[in-house]
C-alpha cells in the first residue's frame, strides 16, 4: 500500500473512532510502529490530529471524544495539578460524585485514605477505589460504554436522581463565557447536569485546553457551579467573570 493511501485510510479510521493507537494501526496495515509514528507525525503537521504517547486523537470537532485509554495520557501533569488542588476540598464524612472524566480519575487516585462515600458512573474509578476499606462506593449502573469505560443510559439517569451529594467534581469538553459548560457526549452531559443539580457544592475541574470553546451538548450555565479548579492562572477576563458570578477560582499557587 502506498504511503498516501495509508494516510488517507488512517484519516478515515480516526474520523470514525476519534482516537487511535499506534499498535492497532500497525496491525491493521501490517507495517512497523515506526512507520505509523511517521504517518501520525505528518498528519499532525497537517493539523489533522494531535499525537500523544502511544497514539493520536482529534480535538477540533465539537463532537470529538477521545477514548478514555488515550485521554488518560493527555496533559497528565496538568490533571495531577488539578487533582492536588481538589484533595483538600474533600473532608472525611463527605459524599462526593466523581464523573467519568480522566481528571476525576486522577482525583480518585489520591483519595483512598479518606473516609468518604463516592458515587460514580465510571468503571475505572470504581475499580480503582474498590480495594479501599475507607471508602463507601456506589457505582451507578446502566449500559456499559467501553469507549468511555463508564455506564450511560436511562437507568443511570434514574439512579442519579436518587442521590444527593455534598460535593460534585465535574469536568466537560468545553467551557465558554457566553454558552456555558458543554460536552461532546449528550448522555455524559445529562449525567453531569444532574450531578450539578443534586450537589450542595459543585466544582468544575477543567484544564486550559477547554476554555473559549463549545461542544455538542449543554451541561449547564456557568452560574450553576460554585467553584472552578484549573491547572494554570486564567486571563483577567475570565477571572473577572467568575468574580461577577460569585464562582470561587481555585488554581495552583506555583
Low-confidence stretches: none
Residue share in helix: 25-40%
Radius of gyration, rounded?
Answer: 19 Å
Could you tell me the number of beta strands? 15
Quaternary state of the chains: single chain
Shape: globular
Mean pLDDT: 92
Summarize the main sheet.
7 strands, parallel
What would you call the structural class?
alpha/beta
> How far do the termini sit from each other?
50 Å
Total number of helical segments?
10
Strand order across the biggest sheet?
6-5-4-9-12-14-15
How much strand?
15-25%
Reading the helices and strands in chain order gives HEHHEEHHEHEHEEEHEEEHEEEHE
Write up what this structure looks like.
This protein is globular. A 7-stranded parallel beta sheet has the order 6-5-4-9-12-14-15, with helices on both faces. By secondary structure, it is α/β, with parallel strands linked by helices. The protein has helices spanning 3-17, 22-29, 33-45, 68-71, 76-86, 102-108, 123-129, 154-160, 186-197, 236-244; strands at 19-21, 50-52, 55-57, 95-98, 117-120, 136-139, 143-145, 150-152, 165-170, 174-176, 180-183, 199-206, 217-220, 227-230, 248-250. The mean pLDDT is 92. A hairpin with a 4-residue loop joins strand 7 (143-145) and strand 8.
Amino acid at each position: 500500500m502506498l504511503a498516501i493511501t495509508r494516510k488517507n485510510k488512517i484519516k478515515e479510521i480516526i474520523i470514525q473512532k476519534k482516537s487511535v493507537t499506534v499498535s492497532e494501526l500497525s496491525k491493521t496495515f501490517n507495517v512497523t510502529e515506526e512507520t505509523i509514528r511517521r504517518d501520525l507525525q505528518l498528519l499532525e503537521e497537517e493539523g489533522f490530529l494531535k499525537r500523544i504517547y502511544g497514539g493520536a486523537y482529534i480535538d477540533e470537532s465539537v463532537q470529538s471524544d477521545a477514548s478514555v485509554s488515550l485521554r488518560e495520557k493527555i496533559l497528565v501533569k496538568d490533571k495531577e495539578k488539578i487533582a492536588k488542588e481538589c484533595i483538600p476540598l474533600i473532608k472525611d464524612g463527605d459524599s462526593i460524585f466523581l464523573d467519568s472524566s480522566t481528571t476525576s480519575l486522577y482525583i480518585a487516585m489520591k483519595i483512598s485514605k479518606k473516609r468518604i462515600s463516592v458515587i460514580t458512573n465510571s468503571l475505572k474509578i470504581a475499580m480503582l477505589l474498590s480495594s479501599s476499606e475507607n471508602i463507601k462506593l456506589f457505582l451507578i449502573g446502566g449500559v456499559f460504554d467501553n469507549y468511555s469505560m463508564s455506564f450511560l443510559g436511562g437507568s443511570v439517569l434514574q439512579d442519579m436522581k436518587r442521590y444527593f451529594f455534598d460535593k460534585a467534581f465535574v469536568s466537560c469538553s468545553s467551557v465558554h463565557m457566553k454558552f456555558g459548560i458543554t460536552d461532546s457526549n449528550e448522555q455524559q452531559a445529562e449525567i453531569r447536569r444532574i450531578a450539578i443539580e443534586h450537589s450542595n457544592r459543585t466544582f468544575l475541574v477543567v484544564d486550559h485546553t477547554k476554555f473559549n470553546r463549545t461542544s455538542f451538548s449543554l451541561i449547564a450555565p456557568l452560574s450553576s457551579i460554585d467553584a472552578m479548579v484549573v491547572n494554570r492562572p486564567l486571563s483577567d477576563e475570565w477571572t473577572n467573570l467568575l468574580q461577577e458570578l460569585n464562582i470561587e477560582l481555585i488554581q495552583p499557587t506555583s
